[in-house]
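Exercise (ungraded).
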Amino acid sequence: MTSIEKEGIKMDDCFYKIIEIRSLTDETFSLILPKARFPFKPGRHISLRIHGNHRSREYSIYSGAFDENLEVLVKEVENGYFTPRLRKLKAGDLLEIHGPFGKFGIDKMTAEAGKFVFIASGTGIAPFRSMIRTYPEINYTLIHGVRESAEAYDREEYAADRYVLCTSRDLKGDYVGRLTGYLKICSFAPETQFYICGNSNMIFDALDILKNKGFERDQIHCEVYF
Amino acid sequence: MKYHLITLGCQMNLSDSERVSAVLEAMGYVFTENEEEAILLGILACSVRQKPIDKIYNKIAQWNRWKNSRNLITFVSGCILPDDKEKFLKTFDLIFQMSELAQLPEMIRGYGIVTPAGLKQPTPVMPKNEHITEMWNIKPKYQSTYEAFVPIQNGCDKFCTFCAVPYTRGREVSRPSSEIIDEVRHLVQQGYKSITLLGQNVNSYGLDKEGLEINFAQLLRQVGEFGKASGEEFWVYFTSPHPQDMNREVIEVIASYDCLAKQIHLPMQSGDERVLIKMNRRHSMDKYRRIVADIRELLPDATLFTDIIVGFTAEGEAEFENTVAAMNEFRFNMAYIAMYSPRPGAASYRWENEVSSDDKKDRLHRLSEVMKIHSHSYNQSLVGKTLRVLINGTDRKTGFSTGLTEGKLIVRIDKQDESLMGKIVDVRITSAADFSMSGELVQVLSNQI
């Protein structure tokens, strides 16, 4: 078993000490952790557990594959079991992390050649930030659906002409309304590859819209948040 | 010194139990069917449904009562959810992961220590599979003389929302291909006729060691080459594959070798695109359709089996009808249809279960009826043909024998002969029923008698 020495305690290398909790909105925050001890392709997810608690949840990796820190984006769910506990963590607390898992994502060769539309609702933006940070030259448009513009997490990191914010509860979005409303009025190049991440209802609707626009199912890649 | 072992759940547990028995018997323990005379009592747990978990709680309560009057050691392993593991730590003497099996004698000898890893802090809750290879090195005590399971992979990285296996078995780890080929070779040399390559996701084989290990198609090719060179008649199956990693190359390899059985088990779970997304199956119906088309093109005589869950959260009547349509489209020879049951630890356990029990039962019944039509029709098409059948049961009372075709279809033969057990024989099919056929013995290969 590989292990690391930290402050005299011999720990399995699946344990990460939280470096910082970065607050993004009243409900949303990111957990900043030491550099990942595993290689990963952007878009992959990890299993995360609070030390001392036996339940775990899966989260897409929010940081790029070459970033100095592993980062996870979390939205606190009111009356939820896991996220309120995550919210209470402090720097120095231990998390058990396993992974990476999944197939969602883009490899380097595809990223260099393709044309991509990323469609995210809420914290479903996480895998796309990872992809964009890993492949800065990627040809993408990111359509991000949120309720209020404050939820445009780390918006300044994306090129203004590549990021479309859709807000359903304020007027500050590039498009005011649900992202599925925006998708309906958009036109896309026939060779576009679509990546969708978020809650299942949004994915169902986006899938129908894109299929109605004539895109093949193989051009549409989905990652459901649950 | 007698032991009793209860194995619950799937073929993977059955295969693991053969290795547990081998370890215990190497220590001098002798198996007994009667748990009351055993001093070592163990369970290989299954967490796929609630019923087997309830059985474990009942058993350990009973065994702990027996401890008032005699000395016993109890242990549990297999698929255990973290929440149950916490409780089992307090009720069983030993709890271990299969990857720790090689250390079981040491644990038993040091009886009183809960688990070798249990007292260290901090300890990962999610099973780590790095040492599972040590378990695979243990020579199993096969329960049959003609049918065997060979583990090739353990764990699951797929995170289907209805399933808790990633939390009970840990992530996917592939067994070295050289060991797999050696075990297959050994079994064939011993006269085994049916060998099943086992894993939670067999066609993800090798992907955890990309560049260092061959992939599943290459593994099958190596098995096929060995089979061809051996000159023996035997059938190699695999289960379970996941459509996500199934590809045409695998099917091409199966088509190329006689020993690779022309039977594919391809779990569909639902015929509805939305339900598949909600299940986090990570493949579309288009992808599933393409795989089936490849099977029909390259393996025209292959039988096709599947797994289906009815009544999953988000499955309305329209979604269920899509599953019925898929059933009619793919004309499965067998479908293992289950009513959705929320499992603690799985993501869907946290969702409201929208489908009533009555609706689930109704859908199970309706889908089973569709299944029957296709199965019967296929079986009927075989009447008059002569098929190779592996005899796996004889009954003196009825005077019948039973067996399985290469495609795993059940055949009943009007002849009772113990010497036929484990032999592959020619049977002429005389009549067909919904899920089986009847036939008459044509001949037995002379070198097999």
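Further reading is listed at the end of the chapter. For now, observe: Chain A touches chain B through 33 residues (CB under 8 Å). Residues 141 and 162 of chain A are 5 Å apart (CA to CA).
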